[in-house]
Write a structure and sequence with these properties.
Layout: H1 5-11, H2 18-34, H3 40-43, H4 51-75, H5 82-98, H6 106-115, H7 120-148, H8 158-164, H9 168-191, H10 194-204, H11 214-231, H12 236-264, H13 269-287, H14 297-310, H15 314-325, H16 327-353
Helix pairs in contact: 4-5, 4-12, 5-6, 5-16, 6-7, 7-9, 7-11, 7-12, 7-13, 9-10, 10-11, 12-13, 12-15, 13-14, 14-15
């Protein structure tokens, strides 16, 4: 596999930080202008927030990032120091924030790991493992959490009903089925029969109207085989911490919003479960968003899913939610990226000149 350094550097361009910010701000101000419930009095509601719950929300998102750093260290067999792992995660999150969610930062993550001294085959394997585990958390965890929510997972929104014609539940389960099929196929390809996967892939792309992508399919099949070799022989001591870390990461991601909502409105245990479950549905919607970091999509659906709980506090909570979970990675990425480039590229040039 050859990494297109030019395209990756374009993706990592710190100037791109303004694109999702401007999109997000445009949506926020649009919501502000169109929503009659957003006014001077409702904005004052931010002072009603419970500071202990705000602190819990910040703490939870911090623990999520610690989980990310820990997981990438374990996945790479501790070939990354804690500091290098922090750089990798911040830049990975930054790449995800400045690219459409449907694209993600996968290629950038492979590039970053490779530049950190990890062989390309291993970098591909490590990134694929994180993607598969993240998807499997959703595939396995969604039915469990939806069961405990007792069916109260789809919002009672007139706007959603009008636009989607009561098909939100169908859209969710279709998307869920696609993610489940993709995750199971990729897991089988990576851990069970990578060569069979490559053979099937080549056969599919040998069809006349798909033939122009045959070379790319063959290259992808080679990547799967190489990644499978890198992961073969790993025992349970390797996999258990990674799986536990994945559960911890995604649970923390969702619980942050539970804490934010609790800062304004007290929730009982069942309501906490419903808020958690609705985020699972939102995640699927945001993953197919064409905008960088789901800007706009996230803000719109937040209001539709959680107004039931927040009422006049919806707008303020949505801003805090994005402020805690999204915008910090844009800022940190813009700060850390130039330093990382100097450390990785200039250091290598200096070593070669010596």
């Amino acid at each position: 596999m050859k990494l297109d350094n030019k395209k990756i550097f374009e993706t990592l361009n710190p100037n791109k930080v303004w694109v999702p910010i401007l999109i997000g701000l445009g949506i926020v101000f649009g919501m502000f202008y169109l929503d009659p419930s957003v006014n001077k009095d409702s904005l004052k509601g931010i002072f009603d927030a419970s500071l202990p719950w705000i602190f819990v929300a910040i703490l939870v998102i911090f623990f999520r990032d610690v989980g990310y750093v820990y997981r990438i260290r374990i996945i790479t067999d501790k070939n990354l120091s804690w500091l290098r792992a922090i750089y990798v995660i911040i830049l990975w999150e930054f790449a995800s924030a400045v690219t459409p969610s449907v694209v993600g930062g996968t290629a950038v993550a492979i590039f970053i790991l490779n530049k950190e001294g990890i062989k390309l085959g291993r970098a591909i394997a490590y990134v694929m493992v994180t993607a598969i585990l993240d998807n499997l958390f959703f595939v396995i965890g969604a039915p469990i959490i939806l069961f405990f929510a007792k069916g109260n997972i789809f919002p009672d929104s007139r706007l959603l009903e009008a636009q989607l014609q009561n098909s939100m539940e169908a859209i969710f389960w279709i998307s869920y089925s696609l993610y489940a099929a993709y995750s199971l196929i990729m897991a089988a390809a990576l851990f069970y029969r990578p060569r069979v996967f490559k053979w099937v892939l080549i056969k599919i792309f040998s069809i006349k109207w798909l033939r122009k992508w045959k070379h790319d399919a063959q290259e992808y099949g080679n990547q799967i085989i190489e990644a499978s070799k890198e992961l073969s022989g790993k025992n349970w001591r390797y996999w258990v911490p990674i799986i536990v870390a994945t559960i911890f990461i995604w649970s923390s991601r969702y619980l942050m919003l539970n804490a934010l909502i609790s800062a304004f409105i007290p929730l009982n245990l069942h309501e906490h479960t419903i808020v958690f479950a609705r985020q699972v549905i939102m995640w699927i919607v945001m993953m197919i968003s064409p905008t960088p970091g789901s800007s706009g999509t996230a803000e719109f659906f937040f209001g539709q899913f959680f107004t039931e709980f927040l009422s006049n506090y919806t707008f303020i909570t949505s801003i805090l939610w994005r402020l805690f979970s999204y915008y910090p990675y844009l800022i940190l990425g813009a700060i850390f990226l130039p330093r990382w480039i100097r450390q990785v590229f200039f250091k290598k040039k200096k070593e070669k000149s010596e």
